[in-house]
Amino acid sequence: MAAGAPPSSPSPPPPASQQQQQPPFYELVKGSSGLEKVQLRGARGCFAEIYLYGGQVTSWKNDHGEELLFISSKAIFKPPKAIRGGIPICFPQFGAHGNLEQHGFARNRLWTIDDNPPPLPVNPAIKAFVDLILKPSEEDLKIWPHSFEFRLRVALGPTGDLSLTSRIRNTNTDGRSFSYTFAYHTYFSVSDISEVRVEGLETMDYLDNLKGKERFTEQGDAIVFESEIDKVYLAAPSKIAIIDHEKKRTFVVTKEGLPDAVVWNPWDKKAKAMQDFGDGEYKHMLCVEPAAIEKSITLKPGEEWKGRLALSAVPSSYCSGQLDPLKVLQG
Ligand code: TA6
């Protein structure tokens, strides 16, 4: 309004339908055992859910409302037990050694929503996302004496793909570097493990956790499942496909900053031994876990690492051997 002109009456707000939705595009609600969780609703009804406890994705649904991740019916939503299923974050350690608990402590801590994260270059079409942050408590510093900021962005893309972007910064003020190992311990829901095969890890070297972490080379064709498997594939390709024959669905797993990939199914004996896992549930899950295990990540004070996981679920209308279903789908 020009200076000196009579004040005009404020223009009416645009109709709700035209009002640009304002961030945040998530909802904070109460989940199991009163634990808080964030719900993301993306385009075409896609959905994701993240518990502040553990910063753990526990649900990812497609536009038909189908659940794509596995959560055990016996999962315990009570600290300090990690939630069995979804995408537990293994940090600052993968595995069990030294004085840290198995897979580190990030999945057993309460994360908070990060209202003012440092900018992260993203696809502007992505509206449904949330930023979480974890910093060490005084207790944590006693068992892992390093200051860090762990920022996690969980986002739903325009086609329902799910992405997790981790940024870990060394905030030590004593000049010390630190090293850690890391995994997105992703539990995929499958119709029947005996109907599933994994492509992309053929001929890769792996450490077999069932044989004293001995190093072997994978055979030349897709991995199929007939018994317990617990293998760390080394320097694995950036794309891995999990093909569920019965559902005619392929999960495409894309990883950045994460050289390795763990493949795990406990099978019957181990399933029976886990109190937070149903005896027969091994038939309906498979873990494929983008990770940094063989070579730990070392950060100097002030340095930041970024590790990204992107998941999509596409129709398996293509023959095996072609890892890029989008190419086929457009073909
Ligand atoms: O990722 C495979 C693995 O390391 C297995 O050895 C098994 O221990 C699995 O993780 C589950 O570990 P958790 O501590 O979640 O029970």
List the keywords.
6% helix, Beta-galactosidase, Chain A, domain 5, 331 residues, Gal_mutarotase_sf_dom, 8-stranded antiparallel β-sheet, 3 helices, 21 strands, GH-type_carb-bd, EC 5.1.3.15, binds 6-O-phosphono-beta-D-tagatofuranose, disordered C terminus, mainly beta, carbohydrate binding, disordered N terminus
Secondary structure elements and their pairing?
Blueprint: E1 26-30, E2 36-41, E3 47-51, E4 56-61, E5 89-90, E6 112-113, E7 128-134, H1 138-143, E8 148-156, E9 162-170, E10 178-184, E11 187-189, E12 196-199, E13 205-208, E14 214-217, E15 223-224, E16 229-233, E17 239-244, E18 249-256, E19 260-265, H2 267-273, E20 285-299, E21 304-315, H3 325-330
Antiparallel strand pairs: 1-2, 2-3, 3-4, 5-10, 6-7, 7-8, 8-9, 9-21, 10-20, 11-20, 12-15, 12-17, 13-14, 13-16, 16-19, 17-18, 18-21, 19-20
Residues 82, 95, 102-103, 185, 209, 230, 262, 264, 287, 289 line the site of 6-O-phosphono-beta-D-tagatofuranose.
Give the structure's gist in a few sentences.
With 331 residues, this protein is mainly beta. The chain is 6% helix and 38% strand. Residues 1-7, 16-20 and 325-331 have low confidence and may be disordered.
Structural commentary:
It is an enzyme of class 5 (isomerase). This is glucose-6-phosphate 1-epimerase. GO terms for molecular function: carbohydrate binding; glucose-6-phosphate 1-epimerase activity. One of its GO terms (biological process) is carbohydrate metabolic process. It comes from Leersia perrieri. The chain is globular. The strands form three sheets. The protein has a nine-stranded antiparallel sheet with strand order 6-7-8-9-21-18-17-12-15, with no helix packed on it. Strands 5, 10, 11, 13, 14, 16, 19 and 20 form an eight-stranded antiparallel sheet that branches. A four-stranded antiparallel sheet has the order 1-2-3-4, with no helix packed on it. The N and C termini lie far apart (about 55 Å). The chain has helices spanning about 140-145, 265-275, 325-330; strands at about 25-30, 35-40, 45-50, 55-60, 90, 110-115, 130-135, 150-155, 160-170, 180-185, 185-190, 195-200, 205-210, 215, 225, 230-235, 240-245, 250-255, 260-265, 285-300, 305-315. With about 325 residues, the chain is mainly beta. It has one domain (about 25-330): Beta-galactosidase, Chain A, domain 5, CATH 2.70.98.10. 6-O-phosphono-beta-D-tagatofuranose binds near residues 95, 230, 262, 264 and 287.
